[in-house]
User: Fold these one by one.
Assistant:
Number 1:
Amino acid sequence: MVDPSYWVGRVIGAALEVMQQLGPGLLKSTYEECLAHELKLRKVPIRVNVPVPLSYKDHQMEEGFRLELLVANTIVVAIKTAAAICDNDEAHMRSYLKHTKYKMGLLINFHAPDLKKGFRQVEMEKNRSRMAYAVLAQL
């Protein structure tokens, strides 16, 4: 099995390329589609708009929510277009991870003034998040 940090690096590299080509100010859906395309060009295995079933007590929902991008069946990726990633964004990612088998999420903010500060990695096992500086330092 490939180390998840390998996939994080691939996603960050693809996101940086999309930002370099498009710049800030576009719609979230534009960045989602372009990032998915860039990842496919780089032969990164992804799934887009993945429906996730959810159960509440005795009520089963076929689609409780959707994951924007799922990379290598390992990392949940959420795209943001805001001035900064906020605690609420991280809380949403933690909820996604809690209700799936996935342990790692990556928030990418394409409207961050400095895209290198527009990444936040969220890990369920460690119950913490961190900026993806270690991966960015390797680029």
Number 2:
Amino acid sequence: MNHPVEMPYVTASLNQVTQTQNDVKPPRRLIQLTKACAKKYLNPPPNTLETPICKSCPGEAHDPLECVKDIQRRCPRLPSVSGLPFRIGQSPLIKNAPTTCAPCPQPAPENLLNKLLRHRAFKSAQQLQHQNDANLKFAGQEQIMAHVCRKNRDINIRMFHKSFIAYADSCCKHIVAIVKFYPFATMDSSLMARFQNLSHHLIAQSKFQNPNYSNGPAYAGHLFSLGWRKAYESKTTVGITRIAEKVSRDRKGWEDLQTHLPEVNRFIGERFEALSKPLFDEVKDHFQPLEAPGLSPDFITNPDAFTCHLSFTLNNFANQCHSDRDSSPYTFFTWLPINKSTGQLVEGPLVGFGGEFVFPKHGFGIDFSGFQGVVECAWKATHFAHLTLPSTTPISSSHT
């Protein structure tokens, strides 16, 4: 059964994008929602007296935000050099915990034969070489910190402040995440200019959209999106979302903005490939047989594309611990410190604190405090639970 709902959205079908004349305000119209969409968005709110089910903890009934607080308690004290305060209202799970991993305890080499000592040295060197080979294969460089995940919810989460690879186990065959830090101080000027262009473009795109509040795990900040996704309208497979009223105010500006999307798509692909070519190739090999379009609103197959959808967040975005339901093998993220009013990159200290990106079930996270630059990450978002911790920024600041 279809439910007619009056909405100001304009969606584009597979065959064409719905357009309006430049000088005519688009009329409001009834959109026939699919049954699944109507069930999701039109049902009455659930009984607030019922205990919500935390999706990241199967079989447990509790407030999902309690998981966020527990994860914050597991994060060690922020480094003193950052000048940031301790986490709000929480005590660390382990007091005075070191910010680096302690060396694994080794038995004292008492009365060991020289042969056994040589064997241990050989195995250690062999393991180090195996790790370096894996680093070179997945990240393109040997000398990058390697972290073997610890699935123990009773220990502190290790927070990283520089580039690293997180492996699922000591075999170094399965990647949990690859993270690289790029300081502005050593960044090539041409690369910084392209990041600046990306920042300006995303801020400009947000002017023609409304924030997406239907993202289940999100509870703070604003989420926007570009490209194609599953359509809400019945008899329509996929579409793009835009606010017709906002587009009508500057139709020419919106159309000009869309002409830059192929370059944005190409730049993001180049950054993903630079982070990890094997992961990028796997995503592209998965995407190309679909003959899907890129980010551009024109439904044209792009042989160089690797994605048809992009999400970006602003204003202290935070979400609950979750795993995504995308079909893509890996997800690529970029963190840009920007001034949301102008779109300019913030090359100095970022005003505010918090917003760490954490993999709580695998015992590690990314701490951006005090870092002046760009951070990029790729991971299997459908398999490894993750979340963005809450952050705060002074009301007078435009940093995000």
Number 3:
Amino acid sequence: VSHLPEGVAADAPLLLVEDVQTALEALGRAARARTRAQVLAVTGSVGKTSTKEMLARMLSDQGRTHASVASYNNHWGVPLTLARMPADTEYAVIEIGMNHPGEIAPLARMARPHVALITTVGQAHLEAFANIEGIAAEKASIVEGLEPGGTAVLNGDVEVFPILRAAAEAAGARVVSFGESAGCHHRALRIEALEDTTVAEARAWRTPLLYKVAAPGRHFAVNALGALAACWALGADRALCVHSLGRWAPYSGRGAHEDILLDPTETELRLHLIDDAYNANPASMAASLEVLAAAPVRHDTGRVRVGRRIAVLGDMKELGPKSPALHAGLAALPAMGKVDTVHCIGPLMRHLFDALPDAKRGVWAESAAALAGDMRHKLDSGDVVMVKGSLSMNLARVVDAIRKMGHGQPDPAVVGPEDE
């Protein structure tokens, strides 16, 4: 603390400093300097927190692992994560985020990773950047903190990959690419999303690879491939990584799936919830809509004979002047063709609502609170509903309302720390 807070005893165990931020950063640097841990830093426009959890899941089976909690990825979270790192840590996973230019490089230099992973680069935080090239340059600045001889693991599918690669090469890093594109060092050859699992066949350099993720979604499989590449760059055991990855599942708010039992005695009367309410940008919204489009519905179980795919979507924030067009543009996504009904929340999502064909329009509401109380009248047995929006839209309130329709879960909800 920089001063004695009111109401705190005079003999309370407080460390008095001139500036709290400066002191926290010093603690973080000191903790980083005292450890011999292999450090992995991860950033990206989409999926960095889920990928961080994948990394922590894999590495924790191979040694004492310390990782960022929740979404501790900013100028407070990164030094706090480092300061909390035990001296005997063997692996550390540090998530690094940003909202404005110039934020990632100082945090990366503080973390001093041996491996830096960039999950993807998409249209997020456009309010602070002129274009996606500017976002790519900021994400790429994570390589400025790499230890000598470090490795940059980069998404080879993104259009701005040349920007990422050039930055890594300029920093003297070894470049490892991953994705579905030809030329990627770690290339996914086939991805099959099943009801509750995604199975992928890939090639790691020249070695065939088969791995599974306990969640449906192509984006999960691609992020997992990047996570595997990053762990292997640290020297982790490959076979054990693949085994451990299969035990990871997304947390609430981050794509978790759960059945909502609508009748305590008739278990066939249930709907399926995809809880992706924690955050949203155009890239993550497209990925989540693909998951919804592929989700199986059940027929002849409720008042509505045909099961429906229903999206409840909230505003995507921090997109700048292009925001109205980016919201309206969601209507043209291929996945929307398989979505039956879209409920929209927030003034920005009004642009999507107006762009939708009449047959797909559900209702538009100003806030999550305005729609949450009516959700029980919008859903029926056999439906699949996906909820997603920026954190400030509080779509967790809608998720809670859907859960309250239930009478106990046939499958327990996946619950974990908040992320990204």
